[in-house]
C-alpha cells in the first residue's frame, strides 16, 4: 500500500506550490482587493506561496496611491504587510512594467522582475494557480 | 481524480457558472471526486434561493442545489464576499440583525480558508471566470 509519508522535519517538503496571479488594476473592479484577502488568509496554511503581478495588476503595487476621489479604501498599504505573513516571493512581469513606464523604484515593496518566459516557467512548476 | 472547483462570476451575467456546473456534473458522471465547489467574487450570487429566472430559462442556483443533494457536494460561499453582496444564511442574518436570509439549499457560508484547503486537498483546482 502506498502511503504518503509526512516529513515532519521539513514542512516545506509537504507544502504545495501555490501561485497567485494578479492581472487587474487595483480599483475599478473588486478582484485585486479580494485576491489580497485570499493571499493573507492563505498565508496561514504555510504553503510555498508566490505572487505574480502582471498586465494592469502591477498598478496594485504602485507607490502613492490616492483613492480619496474614488471614495474607495486604499488597500495598498496591506502589500507592505505581506512580508510579516511570510509571503516573500513577489514577482512582476518585465514586459508589463515596460509597457506602463514603471520601474521597481515606483513600487511599494521589493519585487523580482521576470520576463514573461521566466514567469511561464515558474507557472509550470506550481501545483495551484489562482488567477485574479 | 480529486477536483476542487472555484466559481468567480455571477449567474446569467457570465458563462463561468454554467461551465463550472457542466464540468462538475461531467466529472461526477465520470466517477471523479469533487472535494468542494468554492464561490468567490460575484460567484457568491449563485447561492441565493431568491433567484427567479424566466420559466423557459435554466435555473442556475436550483441546478447547483439539486446537484449538491444528489452527490452530497460541498458548496461553499465565501463569507466576506457574500456579506458584501447581501447573501446571508440564518446565522449570519441573526448576527447582523437582518430581517431575512436568502441562502439556497445545499450551500453553506464559510471562510476563504476553505478555498486554500480545497486547493491543497484536490489533485487539481479548476477555476471558472475571466
What does this entry look like structurally?
The complex is a heterodimer of chains A (132) and B (130). Chain A is of the alpha/beta class and 132 residues long. Chain A has helices at 11-14, 31-42, 77-81, 94-99, 116-124, and strands spanning 17-22, 48-53, 89-93, 112-114, 128-131. Chain A has a single domain, classed as Hypothetical Protein Ychn, Chain: A. Chain A is built from 5 helices and 5 strands; from the N terminus they run H-E-H-E-H-E-H-E-H-E. In chain A, helix 2 (31-42) links the parallel strand 1 (17-22) and strand 2. In chain B, helix 1 runs parallel beside helix 2 (60-71). Chain B is α/β, with parallel strands linked by helices. Chain B has helices spanning 16-29, 60-71, 79-85, 90-95, 113-121; strands at residues 2-7, 33-39, 75-78, 107-110, 124-128. Chain B has a single domain, classed as Hypothetical Protein Ychn, Chain: A. Chain B is built from 5 helices and 5 strands; from the N terminus they run E-H-E-H-E-H-H-E-H-E. The longest helix of chain B has 14 residues, at 16-29. In chain B, strands 4-3-2-1-5 form a 5-stranded parallel sheet, with helices on both faces. Helices cover 37% and strands 20% of the residues of chain B. The chains are: A alpha/beta (132), B alpha/beta (130). Chains A and B meet through helix 2 and strand 5 of A and helix 3 and helix 5 of B.
Distance between the termini of chain A: 39 Å
Helix content of chain A: 25-40%
Oligomeric state of the chains in view? heterodimer
Structural class label of chain B:
alpha/beta
Q: What's the number of structural domains of chain B?
A: 1
- Mean pLDDT score of chain A: 92
Q: Output the strand order for the largest sheet of chain B.
A: 4-3-2-1-5
Structural class of chain A: alpha/beta
Number of β-strand runs of chain B: 5
Round the Cα radius of gyration of chain A to an integer and report it: 16 Å
How much strand of chain A? 15-25%
- Basic shape of chain B: globular
Give the termini distance of chain B in whole angstroms: 25 Å
Amino acid at each position: 500500500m502506498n502511503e504518503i509519508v509526512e516529513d515532519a522535519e521539513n514542512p516545506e517538503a509537504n507544502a504545495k506550490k501555490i501561485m497567485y496571479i494578479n492581472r487587474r488594476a487595483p480599483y475599478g473592479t473588486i478582484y485585486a482587493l479580494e485576491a489580497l484577502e485570499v493571499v493573507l488568509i492563505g498565508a496561514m496554511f504555510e504553503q510555498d506561496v508566490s505572487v505574480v503581478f502582471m498586465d494592469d495588476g502591477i498598478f496594485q503595487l504602485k507607490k502613492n496611491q490616492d483613492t480619496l476621489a474614488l471614495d474607495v479604501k486604499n488597500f495598498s498599504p496591506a502589500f507592505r504587510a505581506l512580508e510579516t505573513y511570510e509571503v516573500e516571493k513577489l514577482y512582476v512581469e518585465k514586459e508589463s512594467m515596460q509597457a506602463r513606464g514603471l520601474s521597481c523604484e515606483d513600487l511599494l515593496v521589493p519585487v523580482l522582475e521576470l520576463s514573461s518566459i521566466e514567469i511561464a516557467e515558474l507557472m509550470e512548476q506550481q501545483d495551484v494557480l489562482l488567477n485574479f | 481524480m480529486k477536483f476542487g472547483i472555484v466559481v468567480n462570476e455571477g449567474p446569467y451575467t457570465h458563462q463561468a457558472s454554467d461551465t463550472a456546473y457542466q464540468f462538475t456534473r461531467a466529472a461526477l458522471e465520470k466517477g471523479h471526486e469533487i472535494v468542494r465547489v468554492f464561490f468567490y467574487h460575484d460567484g457568491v450570487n449563485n447561492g441565493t434561493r431568491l433567484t427567479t429566472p424566466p420559466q423557459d430559462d435554466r435555473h442556475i442556483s436550483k441546478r447547483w442545489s439539486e446537484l449538491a443533494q444528489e452527490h452530497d457536494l460541498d458548496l461553499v460561499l465565501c463569507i466576506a464576499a457574500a456579506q458584501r453582496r447581501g447573501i446571508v444564511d440564518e446565522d449570519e442574518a441573526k448576527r447582523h440583525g437582518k430581517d431575512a436570509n436568502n441562502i439556497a439549499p445545499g450551500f453553506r457560508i464559510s471562510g476563504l480558508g476553505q478555498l486554500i484547503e480545497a486547493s491543497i486537498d484536490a489533485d487539481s483546482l479548476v477555476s471558472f471566470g475571466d
